[in-house]
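User: Hey, my collaborator sent me this sequence without any context and asked if I could get a structure. I don't really work with proteins. Can you help?
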Amino acid sequence: MKDNQPQTIYLKDYSCPDFVIDETHLRFQLYEDGARVTSNLHLRRNPEADSFNNILSLDGLELQLEHVVLDGRELQANEYVLSGDGLVIENLPAQFQLSIVTWILPQENTCLEGLYRSNTMFCTQCEAEGFRRITYYLDRPDVMSVFTTTVEADKARYPVLLSNGNPIEEGDLGDRHWITWHDPFKKPCYLFALVAGDLQYVESWYQTQSRRDIRLRIYVAAHDLDKCDHAMDSLKRSMKWDEEVYGREYDLDIFNIVAVSDFNMGAMENKGLNIFNSSCVLANIETATDATFQRVEAIVAHEYFHNWSGNRVTCRDWFQLSLKEGFTVFRDAEFSADMHSRAVKRIEDVEVLRTAQFAEDAGPMAHPVRPDSYIEISNFYTLTVYEKGAEVVRMIHTLLGAETFRLGTDLYFSRHDGQAVTTDDFVLCMEEVSGRDLGQFKRWYSQAGTPRVNVNDEYDPATKTYTLHFQQKGLPSTGQVTKEPYVIPVKVGLLGADGKGKDFSLAADEEKLVAETVLELTQQQQSFHFYHVDEPPVPSLFRGFSAPVKANFPYTREQLRFLSVHDSDGFNRWDAGQNLALDILEELVSEYQADRLLAVDEIYLSAFATQLDQQQQIEYSMLAKLLAVPTISLLAERAEVIDIDAILAAREALMSALVAANESLLISNYQRMTEQLSRTGLDTRSSEAMGLRACRNACLSLLVQGDSEFAVNLAEVQLQQASNMTDELGAMQTLVNSSNEEAAKDAVDYFHDKWRQDSLVMDSWFGLQASSPVFGDLERIRRLTQHSLFSEKNPNKVRSVIGAFAGQNWKQFHQADGMGYQFLKEWVLILDNINPQIAARLVTPMTRWRKFAGERKQQLQECLTQIKRHSNLSKDVYEVVMKSLQ
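Assistant: No problem. I've predicted the 3D structure and written it out in structure-token form, which is a compact way to encode the shape of the chain:
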């Protein structure tokens, strides 16, 4: 390891910093061979520190120290202690100024943390602990300071110089120039940002509710100026939505976004200067799919919403990361639901939870929403912190109701403005406005794993009483053998034989009836009675996925088919169809393992046909979800032991049966939707058009599973005639997943020749091949890594080839010879020397090795062991591998 004794950081060891930095003045002098950084800090003893030891320990990594000046006097080398990870100064006065000059090498910074070069641009990424790669500092989120930053650089190469806040002064130095930015709001150093480059911008304005005019700019390379309109529109709608729903108004005079091609994350919410992975901000109809448009909209909103939930109020320590991320994911999800289909948005979010976050909860990296410890904080930017954290906030919203929740957020923002706080502080605000004790509820923050909830029912015709019996259980996880009962909100409706909702009461003497209610499950075993129910109902449980649990109710297949057609809750309607398909798929897996004929139950085939027949009564984006077959990832997550051969065979049998039974219906729907898309006056960016494209491509994708040359011909025509990237990629994906290798190769070559000049579009070209179970064999994947457009230093390229192959291509990655595992191991070790964050995330497909059987289990374990034994392993990769092998 690069650090032979990796230090574990524990939440229980938290203590306040000994010093406060009231003001931070930075000057950056940028050159081609490096950068000189001068920091002037105004420090004083922290009156809230538990005990004061008069020793200032500043964090610093890979810095060349030039000068240290204390209150105007330069310190000699024997007056401080310099190490590989920091600078220590003793015997300090109660209040002082400290000036530090460092020399850094951004052009050699391949880990993309701190200040680095992306092509010809300087940019920063400081969350979580990147600022220590810029200068010596108290690099922790609870040290908040007012920043003033001066950036100086060559005028011709770097005409644009940006930092946080508002510009206050600028000047000319001949061939060089400078500008000073001032951010009046205290922030931790992880929110610091700087950009210098030859960039163009699109500009617009937004007027707040208080009539303040805010200048909005999106900075990009000149050739990307035509891809900014959607992001700008998304930003304006985000600002308006946050004012209307949360009462939060933007606080600076300018809001800047910069698109960067080399970036580890999706985007970063730095105060007033959001830095985005270019894939998350650039979009137009020719080069971006409908899914990309929605992703850009959601990420722009997410980063903007952080201005309050993360910037004005930030987290005290990194264990509280979900305080800002879980809350903001909830906020951006609600924004997206308001912009589009609420049911479809909920389905998309739950798909991620069930396939990826539930797998994380059940794996070696399982941790609570508020972790207890970590070795490398970058490993805890997880689905548990983000997505499950958002579900925890959503449950509070469900339990309290929208109005009370808004009162709680108002109190939270006003009470803690300018502070670094904890999840306990957030929950306390909710308790105060609601008058409720949420102490038991906070177990969601401290207990790891996905709770199981078993449900049974009974009906008494004499009293017209229907009863639901619940049992909840939290499974053991690392360091947490016993789990205490959670507070679990269960949104429930009842359906009668006619498919309509049944009214009921939760009290025998209550005359007022309701159609839906939220039950609160607080005990390990608990029963709820529903009165005035005049027939045995079919329960619609956990409507809208009201809690992130694995629920089990003994539905018959006929009941699931019934719910999939009649449930008024869009999410539960989709969920019933998925559960019906899963029940059949798992039966097929067992049949395959027993070497028996795989026969698909007709009930699913008829339910599928019903959805297609009713397509005119369902919004198209919802219909596309209803037509989707459960993924391999979901089947693998649900399995006790992953038999990948059986899962692949079962899913192939189901898909083939679906097409055989519904081919004519699929073709007629494809043709009907093609006609609807071509009609005059249809807005190509409308929700209707997006839904139509999603449905049409779903039909095309299914048709090719029937080995039909007709489907291949349809896809070839669609590829040639496509006027948008959604249809173009949909056709190409169909072809690379077909058995017609010649047609697939022609499509790949055609797409390559057409789009090779557009780096983001080529990421999709890489990804479709790498994830294809038919076209994405290991030999082809190796060739992709040697392609002239592939770069191991660009995270997007790595994710689109190596990440897509290992994470999405179950058939080829898990080939029985184990060569896919060896390939991933080789690349993890290569990337660990370039970008440890990316390398650590690539290990994820190997971490579930215990769920496999036989040789695959042994091969995965051996690859992890070989990685662990490798010399100079980063803390990022070491932590993931070590926990996986424990």
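In plain terms: The radius of gyration is 28 Å. You can pass these tokens on to your collaborator as they are.
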